[in-house]
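ok so heres the complex, two chains, lmk if somethin looks off
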Amino acid sequence: MIHVDSLEELLRLVALVAAGISALIIVWYLVRRPPLGRLTKTLLLFGLGIMPGLVALSGNIAGYEYTLKREFCGSCHVMGAYVRDAENPKSKSLAAIHSRNHRFGGDSCYTCHADYQMFGALTTKLNGLKHLYFYVTEYASTGPDGEGGPTIHLYKPFKNDTCMQCHSTGAPRWAGVEEHQSMLEDIRKGEMSCIGCHSEVHPTALAHRPKAQAKAEERKP
Amino acid sequence: MTHLTVRRLTYVSAAATLGALALMVASLVSPKPVLLVFAMSVGQGLGTLSLATFLLAIALDLQSGGAMVDQVEEEVAEIKSAMHLPDEPAPEQSERTRDTTAHE
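and the predicted structre for the whole thing:
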């Protein structure tokens, strides 16, 4: 019995079934080599056009859905230390605490690192292509967690908007914190960065890279 | 000549589609970053090209007045004559015969 728990799995199943039907039609045509009558042409239109189109469409959406998952981000070895920390139930890092949230924990990398804007998904995926380029050109053969590679850094400063998707800065518990009250406007304008104070985001991961660790030490007051 | 071109184009299109499907299925079964990007670019590009090739083959076939269908009918007729099977009367002919009989 096949269990389909999510849209991604359903789309993947649809794509695989369509690919199977398409392959059957093509193999039948290549092996039997029937004359190109109306029936053969119609079958080939299904096998070469409609079914592969369905595979591409549902496969693309399934692929996109999968790229939102932490499992996907962790499939590049340089992210190993980050993902292990995020998945550690005992870790108190910001990444781990957010990854334990049952609402978006499975997609925690994407939720916190995606651009929060109108075409955010698109710009994030374009940046993903950039990651892939650097991964292939700079981080290949750099040790199990990429220790020998250059320091990993964000392309642009981390915006407060990302945190404010959930932490609206209006909740009484949040507003009750003295530091938040005194810097409320600066936080809302983005002049005071959230991670300026909440800096223990990926501590274990930084410790794996001597260059990165040195920079982190420099930043500490 | 057109008959051969149409056949060749259809075979090329079928083989290219199989390749494109293999790439797309691989990215679904093992969704690794490089494979995903490869399937979404090369795989889908190959699939689109193979569909275009098939449509070109069909256009050529239609332009030649369905020459392939004619050829198949000829081949069937040849096989029938080789097997000494009687030719079926054409529907128009039989109707005409029936009309004549009715008038008589």
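quick notes: Residues 53 and 199 of chain A are 46 Å apart (CA to CA). thats all i got rn
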